[in-house]
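Hey L., structure's done. Input below.
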Amino acid sequence: MDNYTVSFSVDGQPVSEQEIHDMELSRYHHVFKIFNDKNIAIKKDNTVIPYEDLLKLPLSEAKEALAQTRENIGKEKTLELFKPEIARGDDMWTEIANNSREGVNMQEAYVDVEVHGITLVQFMMFNQKLAKENNLYMPSMIHPEHYYFDADKSGKQVIIETFGMYKDPSYLDLKPGKIEPDFSVQPKENADIVMAGNTFLKNTGLDTKMLGMHQLTSTEDGMKIKLGVLLPEGAPKDIADGHKWHLMVEFNNGLHIAAQQHPSFIQRKVLETAIHHMANKK
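Output:
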């Protein structure tokens, strides 16, 4: 039996894990259709699974099949296979950025998470594990619309994902950033860690004017998390609404992985010191 709980809410309304799993499975079906339309075979344990059978898989098997397939395809081949989608995504974000002012009238999309029995140290260990493994398997297990992932030690990430479940996958360069004092949206004062990032198009370097902002606060037996994306004023509202679901699927899976991280005494002390340092830098 799990000795931890993870609870999600959006706009003050609770969202059950079953609802999150239902959405997650529907996005697997969405991705399976994309792969089928592109004649990319989905294989589990080196056995091709016909499209009709993919739609009958339980969530756990769907996750494993897609993750194995992505890892076997590899990063270079993934970029080649999804060139048309990436080009359309570049065009979409270029239009959005050209019709938006930086930091003005930003569209806020938040998910609130209350966690008991998983610490901020364990969550940081999960993030370190994700960056260290730096493969396509683990990100795919976290969300079916994570097509590509490449991280470095500085905290930069290059990803391909269907942002906000909207239209085509986007090829994005995520860089650690900060919320400028003149921006219309500011983090809460009491957050221990504010994970903020700027989002650029990987192909062109264009600033999409979109920001990620996740706020994490330790509690006596866990943490409270405010997951957020700040979209530029020219972005379709559907992206903000869809990304709330994306965040819930992603962090539900991520927190379950975090729960399995067991820091040594030294690891815990080092990470607690890092958390304290980050909290004081805000």
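The longest strand covers residues 207-219. The chain has a mean pLDDT of 94.

-- N.
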